[in-house]
Amino acid sequence: MKPIITIITLFFTIISTAQDLSKLYEKVNPAVVVIFTQEAKLESTGSITKTVTSEGLGSGFMISDTDIITAAHVVAAAEQLRVRFLDGEIRSAKVISTFKSADVALIKLDIPKKNAVTVTFGDSDLIKIGEQVFIVGAPFGYSHSLSSGYISGIIKNKLGTNPFTNTEFIQTDAAINTGNSGGPMFNMKGEVIGVVSQILTKSGGFEGIGFASTANITKNLMMNNRAPWLGLGLDAYPLTGKTKRLLNVPQNSGLLVQRVVFGSILYKMGLQGGDTEVIVDGQKLIIGGDIILAFDAIEFDLTDQALVKLGEFAKNLKPDSSFTLKILRKGKIIELKR
Q: What is the pLDDT of residues 59-107, one digit of tens each?
């Protein structure tokens, strides 16, 4: 008799969970958006390299009638952003701030969304392995798709006190595919506990291991520690060791400018991106562009001390602030001023 009672109890538990998930989905789904991007990329055919327009796709979620959280890799080099809502309305937006290491970004609508539905962050420090979660996004362009699963692990990487190297990711078995990036991961209270980042894959599709940046890291970087210059349309790569030597960087490290978004502040300052794709130690880089050596008097370096100073510089920078970039261009050190 007991096995029958257990089976019946389990059956009704499953039905109840499914109903709860359905109600939560209906509540939070209107806050989820699809993000379409356009960016300039290099395309090589034989010895000919040309710049082409590439379209991208991602997801995001609204935290106010103008502000949307997404993944940094979705929007970091975008020259145009369009946001599509559940009701089919499409609005343009711009990047406000990005943090590449944590893979989170904040974008803002050019015009506020009327009657916007928003979601709130939960405390990701309280999550536990085995806890059920669900994700809403646009995998392969199928907008507002739901997937559910469990928290498989929590990965924390705290290397120091600077805001550029500290990351936290939630590992999950909830299905994540192309187009999900930047979408929200929810707990069973309907709170955002993560921002979908990436998957580990050999086939190109989802194989059971996905990652999301934690809500607390996202809140700290996007709400409490905004760095405006990180949203100025710059795709850059830190140079150390072999890459530093190959490019003749005259200091401990430099910041290789791969792409600069057309019309951005850094573009207007005269900063130039690269024009040649190479692979160094398995890493694909775009070289030929400027190498940033210093922001004002702060020399770029990957030491914790230098990055803390750069973090403070970024946090105190205003939209109309004047500053100077010291760069290496074709073997010569020059300055660009704003």
A: 999 999 999 999 988 987 788 899 999 999 999 998 888 887 788 989 9
pTM of the predicted structure, to 2 decimals:
0.75
- Active site residues per annotation: 73, 103, 181
Kindly state whether residues 198 and 247 are assigned to the same domain. Answer: no
CA distances for 311 relative to 161, 172, 297, 328, angstroms = 10, 31, 14, 22
Closest CA to 35 of 5, 86, 70, 8: 70
How many other CB atoms are there within 10 angstroms of residue 237's CB atom?
19
The predicted-structure confidence for 20-51, as pLDDT tens digits, reads as follows 888 999 999 999 999 999 876 656 555 555 55
Residues pairing with 146 in the sheet:
136
**Which of 183, 206, 224 is where one domain is finished?**
224
Two structure tokens written together for 118: 């928003």
Contact criterion met (CB below 8 Å) for 97 and 120 = no
Looking at the fold, whether 206 and 182 belong to one and the same domain comes out as yes
Residue 104: both structure tokens together: 């989170």
d(CA 234, CA 38): 14
Looking at the structure, tell me whether residues 172 and 210 fall in a common domain: yes
Are residue 219 and residue 233 in the same domain, yes or no?
A: no
Range(s) of the domain holding residue 145: 124-224
pLDDT more than 70, % of the chain: 82
- Structural domains in the chain (count): 2
Question: Distance between alpha carbon 278 and the CA centroid of its chain, in Å?
Answer: 24
